[in-house]
Amino acid sequence: MGTWIDISQRLDENVAVWPGDTPFSYKVNWSKEESGSVNVGQINMSIHTGTHIDAPFHFDNDGKRVIELDLDLYIGSARVIHLPNKTSIGVNELSSIDLDGVTRLLIRTDAWKDQSVFPQSIPHIQPELAAYLSELGVRLIGLDLPSVDPLDSKELSAHHELAEHGIHILEGLVLDDVLPGDYELAALPLPLVEADGSPVRAVLKKLP
Ligand SMILES: N[C@@H](CC(=O)c1ccccc1NC=O)C(=O)O
Ligand SMILES: [Zn+2]
Ligand SMILES: [Zn+2]
């Protein structure tokens, strides 16, 4: 027991939210006193808060919704790599890193220092990286950042290029204490039928 490392942001009113987006809230809507038996809670949040996956519908009206996503993307072996102090991440930044046989790639950038505050700027994924990664067999990319594109991007070129190359997106990971290496990942989305993404509880277990 105790072998799983939680790499998820905690969800309470302190969680950082995209500027202008729905704040996170949890409340007991029907208390034990009122109901006579139970506390019944309610959460209200944007899907793009904290640790979450994007479904292609987030940036493409014809894209897949969460329920249509392959669960295999979100459970299985993953490689964590450490790329601190980058302004962007492209083929150059990855060319010296061994990605042989990697299906799920998690990138620790350390660029979002205080995750209770939404960052001013982040290193972004260069759209050209999508073709390079898909050639290697990568199907999921995860980051310790709120987006794979620059925060002010409207085109979301990296989101689109990744999707076009069959690479799915996991955002808002907490990788502060995770050393580079190979792990078992579980980060399952909820069975949301129509949604453009889903919060996930992301966990890692070191592989021998
Ligand atoms: N692309 C971001 C989310 C995003 O762009 C966003 C999320 C909530 C409210 C506004 C957003 N973008 C606005 O331009 C993501 O994938 O999480
Ligand atoms: Zn998102
Ligand atoms: Zn995204």
From TrEMBL:
GO molecular function: arylformamidase activity
Pathways involved: Amino-acid degradation; L-tryptophan degradation via kynurenine pathway; L-kynurenine from L-tryptophan: step 2/2
Entry keyword annotation includes Transport: no
Keywords recorded for this protein, A-Z: Hydrolase, Metal-binding, Tryptophan catabolism, Zinc
EC number: 3.5.1.9
Active site, UniProt feature: H58
Cofactor: Zn(2+)
Binding-site residues for substrate, renumbered to this chain: W18
Residues noted as binding Zn(2+) 1 in the record, renumbered to the chain: H48, H52, D54, E171
Listed InterPro entries: KFase/CYL (IPR007325), KFase_sf (IPR037175), Kynurenine_formamidase_bac (IPR017484)
Protein family according to the UniProt entry: Belongs to the Cyclase 1 superfamily. KynB family.
Function: Catalyzes the hydrolysis of N-formyl-L-kynurenine to L-kynurenine, the second step in the kynurenine pathway of tryptophan degradation.
Protein name per its UniProtKB record: Kynurenine formamidase
Encoding gene, per UniProt annotation: kynB
